[in-house]
């Protein structure tokens, strides 16, 4: 298998989504005021990370289809 930097970027973006989502869920599970203070920030970070991951996946699929 050859080294694919796009795959590494996609995996890092997906890991970022999981990390932010896990942090948010952990904060809510704790039940203290931290979750209420940071929930909107974490939601925005998750949406941005998901957007980046999806864009990278679409670019990779289009690049593979074009023969790259």
From TrEMBL:
Protein name, UniProt field: Twin transmembrane helix small protein
UniProt keyword Transport, yes or no: no
UniProt cross-references to NCBIfam families, sorted A to Z: twin_helix (NF033233)
Tree of life domain: Bacteria
Keywords attached to this entry: Membrane, Transmembrane, Transmembrane helix
Family matches, as InterPro entries: Hypoxia_induced_domain
Transmembrane segments: 45-63
Boundaries of every HIG1 domain copy: 1-68
Organism: Pseudosulfitobacter pseudonitzschiae
Keyword Transmembrane: yes
